[in-house]
Structures are given as C-alpha cells and as structure tokens.
Amino acid sequence: MLNKSMWYSILTIACVGFIVLSIGFYQSIIVTTSANPQPATKAEAPQTTPDLTKLPSKNANSFKVLLLGDSVAKGTGDEKSKGFSGYLQDNFKNSTPKDILVDNAGVDGLESLGLLEQLQSRKLDKTISDSDFILVSIGGNDIRSILTMNDLAKQDQFKVRQDSYLANLKLTMKTIRTTNPKAIIIFLGLYNPYETASSVEDTRLLNTWNYNSQLLIEQDGKAIFIPTHDLLKFNLARYTSKDGLHPNSAGYQAISNRISKSVEAIITGS
Amino acid sequence: MFSLIENEVIKMISKKRLLFVLGILIVLISIFAYGQNQSQARTKAQLSQRMGISATDDWRKLADQQLIDMKNRLDSPYSDEKSKASTRVRMEQLQYNVDQNINPLEQSAAKFTTTFMQQAIFLFLPLLIIMLSADMVSGEYSSGTIKLLVVRNVPRWKILLSKYLTLVVLEVVVVFFAFVIAAVISGFFFGFGGWQAPVATGFKVLAGKLDTTGVLNVPQWQYSLMVYSLGFFVAFVVGSISFMISVLVKSTAASIGIIMSTLVAGNFISFFLADWKLTRYMFMVNLRLTDYLSGSFQPVEGMNMLFSVTVLLGWAIASIIISFVYFTKQDIMV
Questions:
Q1: Structure confidence by residue, pLDDT tens digits, B232-273
Q2: How many domains does chain A have?
C-alpha cells in the first residue's frame, strides 16, 4: 500500500517534472541561440548628438577641451554629474572671456590598449584636431587588478603591465600628435583609492608607475603631467565617492583647480 | 509495460538507493548553505574594512551613484555600442535592487538554488545519477536475478525499456528534489525570497567571441527553471551512457568505475588535450551547459549551446541503441 502511493506520487512528480523541465530546456536553447531574443529596448534616454559639428576654435572665440580616457576623465563618481567637463569649464571661464566647449569621450573601464584602439579607429580625429586642450586619464584600470595579488605575483605582473601600458601610451601620444601637434595635453597621474589598506610597497609601485608616465608624457613639449596622488592621499574620505574608487564632486573640483592653475597663463595669454 | 515500470521503481525504492541520493543531497546542500552564509559574512567584513564604508548600510547610495554613472554611459556617444546592452541589463538589475530594497550583495534562496545546480551539473549531479543507473542491469547479473526476469513471458526489449524508463523517471525525481531541497534549506539561511529578481542571460558566441548584444534579463525563477532543465538533460545523457555500460559490463563495480573515471577525467581532459580538436566531441567536456546561459565560459571556437546539446544528444541516442541491440542479441548465462 505504501509502495503503491509512493509509486503514484513518484509518477506524478515525474510526469509534471518532465513537462516543466522540457519547457525550460526549450527556453534555454532559444535564449542562447536565437538571432536576437526580444531586443531589450526600453524607453531609452535619447542620445545626445556629439558636438562634432561645432566650429573649430582655431579662429573662433572659444576654447575646446577634449576629455579622453577612463572613467575619471568621464567624471564617473561625481554625484552632481559634472566631472571635469563641468569644473574645468567653470574654472577656465574665470580666466578668459572666450567660450569653453568640452567634449567628453571618456569611457568607463577603459585601459590603455582600449584608448589606443579608440584613437586608432580614427572616429575622434576631427574632435582631436579641433581641440586646444586634451585631458587624458588612463592607466588606473591597467594597474588596479594587480592590487589583490600576492607580493610575488604583484612584482612580476606590475612589470608586465607597466611595459605594455607605457608602450600603449607612447603610441597614443604619437597618434594624438599626428592629428593635432598644437594642443596642450594634460595627463592625470594616478592616485591610490585604497591608500588606507595598502602597504609601503604598493605606494612604491604607484610612484614608479607615475614617474615613468611623467617621463614619457613630458618628452612632449606641450604636454603636462598633473599629479593627483599627493592631493588625495590624506583627503580620501573627502574626495572619493561612495564607490570608494572614483573622485567625488569635491575631488573633481580639487583636481580641476589644480589643472586650471597649471595652464592659467596659456588661457589668459592667448 | 506500465506495471513493469512500477515494478522497477518499487525495486529501486526498496533498495534504498533513491533514499541515499536524497540523503546525500540534504547533507551536502546544508553544508554548502552554511558555508555560503559564513563566507558572505566574511566578504562583508572585508569590504567594509577595505573601502572604509559599511557595505551593508551604504549600498543604496552606492547603487544610486552607479545608476547615474551607467545612465551617463548609455547617453555617452563615445561608449561602445556593444557594451550598451550589458550596461542596460546591469542597470535594470540594479534598479530592481533599489526599488525592492534588496542589497545586491545579499545571498538569496533563489540565487543559491540556481548556483547549486550550476556547480553540480558537470560532476556532482552525474555522480548521483550513476549511483542509480550503474547497477540497473549489471546488478541483475551480479545477484543472478536476471534469469528470473528473462524467463518471464515478456520480450527482452520490453524488459530493458521498462528499466530505461524507470531511470528517466528517477532522473526527474532527483532533479526535482535537488531543486526542492536546495530551495528549502537555503531558505532557512537566506530567506525564501528572490525569485523575481532579474538575472542576465542571452549570451551568444559569435566567431569564437562572447557576444553580449542580445543580453536580456529574465526573472530568477525562469532562469533557475532553465538551469534545472539543463541539469535534467545532463542527467538524461549521463544516465543513458552509464545505463549502456551497465548493460555491456556484467560487474557492478566495473560499471561504476568506468563511467566515474570517464567523468572525472573529463574535468581535466581539456587541460591536457587543448589543441586536439576531437576532445570537443566527447560528452564530458560538454556537460557545463549552464555556462552558456550565464555567459561565464571561455569561448572556444566552434563550441556553443547547440553544438554541445547535439553532441550530448548524439551520445545518448547512440548509447540507447547499443544497449538495446546488445541486450536483445546476447546470450544470458548465469
């Protein structure tokens, strides 16, 4: 009797289960193979058209600033959504009567290789050749993942990453310069968002990285390396955003102030 | 025919084999759930130490910030068209978390249940199935009861078919109970919710590269249904193969040994024979079907969901044919 009822319950489970599982199996095949399973289009924010059509500033009454590189260039982490495009504009306006136009081409998570590919795709050529200032922030994503490694692997990986990074950066600079030999290139150094949790050795690696970047950048007569490590070292709580990685609004403002001081003479002079 | 299957099922139950399988499931799932619970607490502690924030309280602000950033990224004309689909999907997930006030770091019963099958599908679940299937026919030889079976006035193929269908029934039962046990036990640890949460799927392999343009969110229950269905499919394939071996080999120990060593070898075969194209036609390397759903695989040229399913199906059908031909043709002498 017990066997009988058990048999029927097993049979029911088996039949129902078989049908349900078959449906699921069919679904999973569809979802992984079909050409396009219901395009996930929702009410998407309208695309802002890039300001590629605006007049070049060479003769007009305006400065053009181009932001290139990773999320820091883009302004990720700013709770007011301004980032460099907002603060640089504000700061530059104080020094010159001209209009300031900013193009933000920063991409989150971009590594040095990605930046190089972005430039070599030539889509940005027109924007680059129109720009008076090009702000570049790159490298953070190249180096970030080695932080969690053990000390030995860290040393090795650091060397490998730095070499490929410097090679990419060199080519990047070359690409920018072939398109626009005149613009002032502002290169942002790296800071350590995990300062409190990192060792002396980590800081040494970071400084090596920054130093080598600076050497490379300032081989170009019209490029300047702006350090950020010193600015944020003791101010992490004030200047980094809730994600613990990017600068926040105040952080972007502080770095922007530093940048605009560095290039003040160029802006007022011309 | 029906009564033959009933007879077989009752035989399996009285052999306590099914109970063993369920017992193993209960014990292991409890351990896993407990371990997950521990490691989650540790992760939280590490995170708050590292970032200087308490991730448990501040996740909302962080999520809001991430949402703004992702929205900006979607709006940016410079970001890559390909990455937009995945950004959109991540945004939907995060938005859901914010709307429902669920910390994305928290584990849930639904998540655990799905992950369990994703991890079990390539070794653990096949082993459970082998426990049931490996001695189905060879056991009758070992104990000598095969004589009693074949002297009955029933064609041999019917006997084997009833055994095979019993195996399929038991496969469904095992997958079903794996789901129920995982859902209930992890429910005690993490709460019973989370079945509506969106999960990203729809990854495809195009020309050896992971293509994320078709990514979309499905609710967790649907996702885990798909995962468990794939689990059942794997159980069906492995069950068929080990059923064949149990027909071919007359000793139960040898039958279990053969299929088990094949399975375990499959886990590192691709490591040694990475360049050898033929390995991809082996069933062991195609068992990780759920990876195609979650997109968490190393894309290999020429391997995709359809390929793997076809290969596995080929193995299963071949096994079934061999079993039946061999069983009906052979001489039975005990």
A1: 999 999 999 999 999 888 888 888 889 889 888 877 776 776
A2: 1
CB contact under 8 A, A107 and B79: yes
| Domain boundaries, position A78 | 62-269
Does the predicted model carry a pTM greater than 0.90? no
ipTM of the modeled complex: 0.75
* A168 located within any domain: yes
Burial of residue A221 (CB within 10 Å: 0-12, 13-18, 19+) is: exposed
CB contact under 8 A, A32 and B9: no
- For B280-315, write each residue's pLDDT tens digit: 788 888 888 888 887 766 656 667 788 889 999 999
Cα Rg of chain B (Å, integer): 24
DSSP string, A54-86: SPPTTTSSEEEEEEEESHHHHTTT-TTS-HHHH
Q: Is residue A15 a part of any domain in this protein?
A: no
Choose among A27, A40, A197: nearest Cβ to B215.
A40
Distance from CA of A265 to the nearest CA of B (A): 31
Tell me the CATH number at A107.
Answer: 3.40.50.1110
Rounded Cα–Cα distance for residues A124 and A205 (Å):
33
